[in-house]
Amino acid sequence: MINLQPYTNPRYFIIILVALLPLIIGLYYGKRFKTYEALFSLVFLFLMFDGKDWIQGVQLIAYIVFQFVLTFAYQKYIKSGRNKTWVFCLAVILAIAPLTLVKIAPHMHGKVASLIGFMGVSYLTFKTVEVLMELRDKTIQTVNPITYIRFLLFYPTLSSGPIDRYRRFEKDCDKAPEREEYIENLRLGTRYIFQGFLYKFIIGYVFGTLWLPQVAKAAILYGHANGGLRLSWALVGYMYCYSMYLFFDFAGYSLFAVGTSYFMGIRTPMNFNKPFISKNIKDFWNRWHMTLSFWFRDFIFMRFTFFAMKHKLIKNRIRLSQAAYLVDFLIMGFWHGLTWYYIVYGIYHALAIIINDIWLRFKRKHRKQIPHNKFTEAFAIFLTFNVVCLSFLLFSGFLDTLWFH
Amino acid sequence: MDTKEAVLDILNELTGEDLSDQMDDNLFDSGLLDSMATVQMLLELQEKTGITAPVSEFNRDEWSTPNKIIEKVESLRNE
């Protein structure tokens, strides 16, 4: 049976381009063939979840049904004029319950537990929770069921984002863009996909497939020889090699997803903006996995601070922002998975951003005494890069292998 | 108090700067506003102008300059 995982090899792009051709021609002539688009999505989703992956497919269907019932029940509740906080909390807890189960499952034993989980569940949850929150705030008045399913199951971004927003998606998905705009979409889409080839299939391949296993072997060998914390120069090499691999692989994937979206006349937001030239950690999170960090900013950080300020839980503004950073990044850590190194990765970034804020406040106060020139800026970029790479070493889970296995 | 005055007052309090001569400057790019300050701004706007601006309403592009904020507050007021 044919099973087609998105963006895995160059041949895939030929297949998808041919399949998208009717849609592309339609959009070029100002028409959006929605039935064809639905058919396309259905076929490619089927090819993604068929064969040995059918168990995942069944779970995806059950998940979508569940979220639909939840979202429209909540919408009905809001439209009846009520808006109790506990109902909202209950709805959000229910919406993240499947994801929680998927994250817990790897830590349970048994045959059933090993089957739980399906591709895309982490990213789908962002979309459903966003819609619930915006229904409560009435920034989304009515969720259109057809738009909602197209939004959730939008094929190019289903497996790993970028995370779009309902209102943004809605603006694109019903109309065909103007001819000029669509030509620009095609131009950019093509560029993104080719940039993605370079990133994922060439640079990411060199770092991830050719070099990383070698460096890993060396780091384990030298680490065990050195004893103690099993540190070695090879481990430093692993840190940089993994960081490069992580960026080029994920940024490459994201470029594919955005590029394909553009072909379909949907301007999915970008995920990366030159993260390694960040001047500080705050800057970094405005450039790295942006749709994820912006989601956390808008739906965790700002909501938490809004709630805490309104109810005067923490009066000191600096303390409050520090608490909010901890909450924000801890949840991000848990979202990545329930292992020590993801949680530590979250705490590490929270601390980094808190320290960064303290420094920025200090700098503002002593603006005259602290030099600012090209060298200090280069040093800031160098420092940020290394702080970030160290966090990726944690994130990689390699320390877990090195220390505990 | 008119909207412009109220908004500028709040921004002055938050950023420590009088922004009346930079009505079209992007406050996020210049680092004068961040998420924290934004939340505070939304709460103060709620208190002083009577608008309800939930966090979901907040979109950085639409609230990035003093003029845009005033425009946004006025459109929310007329709803």
TrEMBL record, chain B:
Record-linked SUPFAM superfamilies: ACP-like
Coiled coil: none
Residue positions, PTM O-(pantetheine 4'-phosphoryl)serine: 35
Carrier domain location: 1-77
GO molecular function: D-alanyl carrier activity; ligase activity
Entry's family note: Belongs to the DltC family.
Name assigned to this protein: D-alanyl carrier protein
Organism of derivation: Lactobacillus hominis DSM 23910 = CRBIP 24.179
